[in-house]
């Protein structure tokens, strides 16, 4: 089962769309187990996502969201996105052991 | 030839089908599989149709607000929010706007390829807003539809590369790299904020050393933030107008409950509009980036403003508060002067004021952030004031565009077109050619300066 990954920004129109494209590329290239979609931050709580990816400024404000929240500093930096996602997957498999 | 008439006027004349057709062609050219082509085309059309639904809801509440405000205060009140005014514009100028956007995206690639302005503007909603204001200004000046879409498209393409170029030096001071640009049409404000920051402050005394209450981050929640602004100003207008006027509009609803429902309906309308935008852009933006990487060597993507927020999150809040205060001062000034009252809606002030502060902070610390966002707060109140008469003249009442770059292009364009369409367009293209010449000149100077600097470093 793939994890549900939601990319959010303030309006859901601009930077989340670019960040989603970058996450898509990382997920596609490394064959990571994520289904990726995007929305505005107002919709994060009701999304049912397992993991939420947002800008580093927005991420700390998503406090009452029942998901792991990942903040990205440079939304075009695929290496940063890749290491954040790998870290998330590693921490998850640790929890299951 | 009834079938031809159906195709030309009912299908191609419908903005939603037209953008769907462009999406279809784009998807086929990318050699996508049939399910992707179908889903992409349908989503583009449905996204565009969703605008219309949101626009209808927004128009009704904006109309009620206008009535209450003008009855209560004897002057017009305008709520500048680009999502709203664009949705209104699409009901009258949808086809022109859609074609301008398509020509504009292609022209952007051409300009980025041929000039030193290597930016492709990836903030789709801002290109849509820009297309709408160009369609409004050209159509309001009596230009034919053909002239409107060709001139509008070429102008959009040029300025989509030019405005991020304007911030070519300011942007690396924020992000530390020069491979991305700012794709948000307030670049005049941001470049000014960056310059001003360097004059007034010290980047070492950063906003990021300040602790602010976390609850202020509330304003970045789009729905909550719009709802709060609208509730406050709807109640002010309702109380000023009084029970009699409100009862006439409310149709049986209690007059003190009516503004609450209206304010929240407006928030719902804007939410519908941005949902439509997202669906509509979901196919276009990735395709645009993919094509640009192929046809423009050394391309720099120009990104929406929240891309800079992680570099100074506290500055964003400082900038919102400062620019919003400036917006309230300007509102007081308009009331005093008896002008159309530009009411500060929180959302543009959050994103624009916040970004201005990030640029100001990068060159001048907290002083730069405050100074830059205060000036930009004034500019995004003056801009809609200047162009509101143009909106009003084509029946788009109650809203306007806050972004500085829209005013900087739209207002002079409207003025020169009053001299006659032919003369106006000739002057406009002469001005664009002059700007391009200056860009080439500056680029040559900057390149030779960099060459000298790197030679000096090598020795």
Short descriptors:
heterodimer; A: 97 residues; alpha/beta; Rossmann fold; 4-stranded parallel β-sheet; 2 helices; 4 strands; 36% helix; globular; B: 459 residues; mainly alpha; 3-stranded parallel β-sheet; two-stranded parallel ribbon; 14 helices; 76% helix
Description of the molecule:
The complex is a heterodimer of chains A (97) and B (459). Chain A has one domain: Rossmann fold (3-Layer(aba) Sandwich), CATH 3.40.50.2300. Chain A has 97 residues and is of the alpha/beta class. Chain A starts with a strand and ends with a helix. The longest helix of chain A is centred in the C-terminal third of the chain and has 19 residues, at 78-96. In chain A, β1 (3-9), α1 and β2 form a beta-alpha-beta unit. Chain A has helices at residues 15-30, 78-96; strands spanning 3-9, 34-40, 51-55, 68-72. In chain A, α1 (15-30) crosses α2 (78-96). Chain A has two helices and four strands, in the order βαβββα. Chain B has a three-stranded parallel sheet. Chain B has a two-stranded parallel ribbon with strand order 1-5. In chain B, 76% of the residues lie in helices and 3% in strands. Chain B has 14 helices and five strands. The mean pLDDT of chain B is 91. The N and C termini of chain B lie far apart (76 Å). Chain B is globular. Chain B is mostly helical and 459 residues long. The chains are: A alpha/beta (97), B mainly alpha (459).
Task: Describe the SSE topology.
The complex is a heterodimer of chains A (97) and B (459).
Chain A: E1 3-9, H1 15-30, E2 34-40, E3 51-55, E4 68-72, H2 78-96
Chain B: H1 2-11, H2 15-29, H3 34-73, E1 77-78, H4 82-114, E2 119-121, H5 124-140, H6 145-166, H7 170-175, E3 181-182, H8 187-200, H9 222-250, H10 258-295, E4 300-303, H11 313-337, E5 341-342, H12 346-393, H13 404-417, H14 421-458
Parallel strand pairs in B: 1-5, 2-4, 3-4
Helix pairs in contact in B: 2-3, 2-4, 3-4, 3-9, 3-10, 4-5, 4-6, 4-10, 5-6, 5-13, 8-12, 9-10, 11-12, 12-13, 13-14
């Amino acid at each position: 089962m793939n994890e549900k990954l939601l990319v959010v920004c303030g309006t859901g129109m601009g930077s989340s769309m670019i960040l989603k494209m970058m996450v898509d590329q990382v997920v596609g290239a490394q064959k990571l187990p994520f289904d990726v979609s995007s929305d505005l931050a107002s919709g994060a709580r009701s999304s049912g996502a397992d993991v939420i990816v947002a800008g580093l400024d927005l991420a700390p404000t998503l406090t009452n969201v029942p998901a792991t929240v990942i903040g990205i500093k440079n939304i075009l930096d695929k290496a940063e996105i890749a290491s954040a996602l790998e870290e998330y997957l590693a921490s998850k498999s640790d929890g299951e052991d | 030839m009834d079938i031809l008439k159906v195709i030309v006027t009912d299908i191609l004349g419908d903005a939603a089908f037209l953008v769907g057709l462009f999406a279809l062609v784009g998807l086929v050219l990318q050699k996508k599989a049939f399910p992707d082509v179908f889903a992409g085309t349908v989503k583009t059309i449905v996204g565009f149709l969703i605008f219309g639904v949101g626009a209808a809801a927004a128009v009704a509440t904006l109309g009620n607000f206008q009535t209450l405000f003008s009855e209560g205060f004897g002057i017009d009140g305008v709520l500048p929010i680009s999502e709203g005014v664009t949705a209104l514009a699409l009901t009258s100028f949808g086809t022109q706007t859609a074609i301008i956007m398509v020509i504009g995206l292609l022209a952007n690639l051409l300009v980025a390829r041929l000039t030193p302005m290597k930016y492709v503007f990836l903030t789709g909603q801002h290109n849509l807003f820009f297309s709408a204001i160009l369609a409004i200004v050209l159509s309001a000046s009596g230009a034919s539809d053909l002239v409107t879409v060709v001139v509008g498209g070429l102008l959009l393409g040029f300025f989509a590369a030019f405005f991020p170029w304007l911030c070519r030096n300011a942007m690396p001071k924020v992000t530390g790299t020069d491979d991305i640009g700012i794709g948000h049409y307030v670049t005049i404000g941001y470049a000014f904020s960056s310059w001003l920051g360097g004059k007034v402050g010290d980047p070492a005394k950063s906003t990021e050393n300040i602790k602010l209450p976390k609850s202020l981050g509330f304003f970045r929640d789009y729905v909550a933030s719009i709802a709060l602004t609208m509730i406050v100003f709807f109640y002010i207008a309702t109380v000023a107008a009084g029970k009699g006027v409100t009862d006439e509009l409310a149709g049986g609803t209690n007059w003190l409950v009516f503004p609450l429902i209206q304010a929240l309906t407006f928030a719902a309308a804007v939410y519908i509009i941005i949902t439509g935008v997202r669906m509509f852009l979901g196919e276009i933006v990735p395709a645009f980036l993919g094509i640009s990487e192929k046809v423009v060597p050394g391309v720099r993507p120009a990104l929406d403003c929240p891309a800079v927020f992680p570099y100074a999150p506290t500055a964003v809040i400082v900038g919102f508060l400062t620019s919003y205060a400036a917006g309230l001062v300007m509102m007081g000034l308009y009331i005093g002067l008896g002008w159309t009252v530009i009411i500060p809606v929180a959302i543009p002030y959050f994103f624009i004021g916040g970004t201005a502060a990030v640029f100001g902070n990068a060159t001048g610390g907290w002083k730069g952030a405050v100074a830059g966002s205060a000036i930009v707060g004034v500019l995004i109140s003056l801009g809609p004031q200047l162009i509101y008469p143009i909106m009003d003249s084509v029946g788009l009442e109650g809203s306007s565009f806050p972004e500085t770059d829209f005013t900087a292009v739209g207002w002079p364009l409207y003025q020169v077109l009053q001299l006659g369409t032919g003369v106006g367009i000739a002057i406009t293209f002469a001005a664009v050619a002059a700007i391009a010449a200056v860009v080439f000149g500056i680029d040559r100077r900057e390149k030779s300066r960099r060459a000298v600097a790197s030679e000096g470093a090598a020795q």
